[in-house]
Amino acid sequence: MGQQIINGLFLGSIYALFALGYTLVFGVLDILNLAHAAVFMLASFVALALVGHGIPILLALPLAVLFAGLLGVALERIAFRPLRGRADSNISGLISSLAMATVFEAVALEIWGPNISRFPFGTVPETQFSLFGGVVSKLQLAIIAVAVVLFLALTWLVKATRLGREVRAVAESPRAARILGVDVDRAISASFFISSALGGAAGVLFGLAFNSISPDMGRSVELKGLAVIILGGMGSMPGAVMAGFALGLTEVFVVANLGASWRDAVSFAGLFLVLVLRPRGLLGTAALREA
Amino acid sequence: MHFAGRSSLFVAMALAAVGPARAETVVKIGAALSMTGPAAVYGATQKAGILAAVDEINKSHMLKGVKLEAVIEDDASTKEQGIAVFQRFINRDKVAAIIGPTLSNTATAADPLAQAAGVPVVAVSNTAPKGITDIGDHIWRVSLTEYQVIAPALKRMQARLGFKKAGLLYGNDDAFTQAGYNVMKASLEATGIAIVGTQTFAKPDKDYNAQLTALKALSPDILMVSALAENAAGIVAQARQLGWNVPIWGGNGFNSPAFIKNAGPAAEGVYVGTAWNKASTDKANQDYLALMKSRGVDPDQFCTQAYVGVHVIAEAIKLSGMKGTRAAIVAGFHKVKDLPTPLGTFSFNKDRDGDHAPSLQQVKDGRFQIVP
After folding, report:
1. Is the CB of residue B87 less than 8 Å away from at least one CB of chain A?
2. In chain A, what residues touch B40 (CB-CB under 8 Å)?
3. Which residues contact A95 (CB under 8 A, 6 or more apart)?
4. Considering the entire predicted model, what is its pTM?
C-alpha cells in the first residue's frame, strides 16, 4: 500500500510538472500549445547529448531546461505571434503548434533515430530509502520534490512579482493590459519561456526516471497532460498539480487492482464524469472570465 | 564403363573450371526483418546471420550451379509494413522463398499472402505456438515455439530450486508476448507451480512500478515475464529498484544481448530459455562460431536461427535437384532431416515446426551463460 502510494505520487509528479507548463500558457493565451510534448521530448534528448559529452547531470539538467525555455520563446515567435489578433487565432494557433510539434519530432528522428536512447548507467546515483513500508529511490524523491518546489515557485511568481501581475493582466484582457502600459508581447514571451522550461524539466526527469528516450515519448504524456489540465480546471495551476497527483494515484491503483488494460479507460471515464458534473474542473474559474 | 566414368569426370572438371563464366541460376531469398521499431534489436542480428550464411554457401559452391541472393527489407516491426514488404517480394522481386518476418505479430498478417501466392516462408524467430505454421502448407518454421523452449527448462529448474508459487507479467497488446504468456501459464500448470498473480502492460508503457509492487506483495518464488527486449529492460530495472530480488525468468523477448546492455547490472541472474546452446561443442556450432568471429559478429540466438534458416533453404534446394523454384523448395523441405546445424540436429516435425533440443541460460557477468 505504502509502496503503491509512492509509485502514484512519483508518476503524478511527472504529470503535474508537464501539466503546469501546459496550463500556464492555456491560462494566459486561451489556446492549447500542442508542441508542449515535443519540447518535453527535445529537452530530454538535449540533456542526454550533454551527458554524452561528459557534462554531469546536475549541470545538464538546468542547461536542457534553459534550452527548452528558449525553444518555447522561439515557438511563440514562429507559431503564435504572427497569428495573434486574427479572428480565428485560437484554432490557427492550435494547428500551427501541431505543425511545430511535427517539425520537432522530425528533427529528433533525424538526429537520434527512431530507437530508444538511454542515459549511461550511473548518470544518477541509485540510492534507495525505505519509506512508509515501501522503497523509494533518491531520483524518485528528487522528482517529487522538484515538482512541488517548481509549483510553489511558479505560484509565487504569478502572485507576487511584477511579471506575474503583467501575465495575469494579459490573461484578463490583452487590450486593457496594453492600455495600462503592459508590454503584452513580453509578457506572453515570458509565459512561453516558463511554460516550456517546465515542460523541458518534466521531459528530462521522465527520461532519467524510466531511462527511455525516443522521438515519440511525448505522445504518452500529451493526452494525460491534457486530461490533467481539464480535470484541474483550465488555467488553474493548483488544480493542475492536484489533478496530476490524482491521476498518477488513480492509475497506479487501477493497474494494481483491475489490470493495466483498465488504466486509461478508468482515467478518462473519470475525466468524463468531472466534465459532466463540474464542467470547469476541480479548481477552475473559467466561468468567471467570460468577457 | 571404367573409361566412360573417367571421361565424365573430366567433363565435370572442365565444366567446373569454366563455372564462373557459365550462367548460374540465381535464387533470390527475401528477408523481411525488423530493422526499425520495437523489434529492431533482433532484426540487426538476424541480418548478420543471413548474410553470413549466403556468403558461406556461395563461396563453398555447396549448391552447384545455384547462387543465392538475399534481398533484405525492413518490416518496421508492424503488420502494415510487413504486408507491403511481402507483396514486394512476391510480385516485384519474384523471390523463391521468404525468411521472416521478425515478429509473430507481423507474421500472422503477412504470411497468408505468401501462402496464397505459393511462396515458401521460413520463420526464423516466430515463437507463437498457434497462428504461424497453421496458416498453410507453405509456412515452415526453424525457430522453436516458446512451449518447446520453456516447458522442459522450467521442469528442470523446478526440480532443482523447488519453486512453488509464480507471478506472471506480460504485454497483452502483442501476439508474441501474449503467446509467451499462454505458454508460461501452461508450463507452470504442467509443472505444478501455483500462479499467485498476473499483471499486464502495453508496448508503449514505461512505468511498471504499480504492477511489480502488486506482484511483490504476493511474494512469489519466481517472476515470469513475457515482454519484448525494450520493455524487458525497464521491467527488470524497476523490479530491482523496488528492492525485489526474486528470480526472474524472461520469455524469448529477453533473448538478446540488447536486453543485457539496456538493463545493465539489473539483468544479472535473469533466466532465459534458449533455442541455441552457444557453448555446444558440436562441429557445426564451432564452425559457425569461427565463421561469425571472422566476420566480426557476436552472434545471439536470433542471428543463429536466421543463419540456420538460410541453410535449411539451401538444403531443400539441394534435396530437390537444384531447381530453386518455389514449388521445388517446398518439396525439398519435406525431405530435410537430421541436418547438422549450430542449433543441433535439425528436422521439421509434422506441423512444419522446427525440432531440436532447447537449453537454459542465465545472465552472469553481463553475458548469457548456459545453465548446465
Report:
1. no
2. 114-115
3. none
4. 0.76
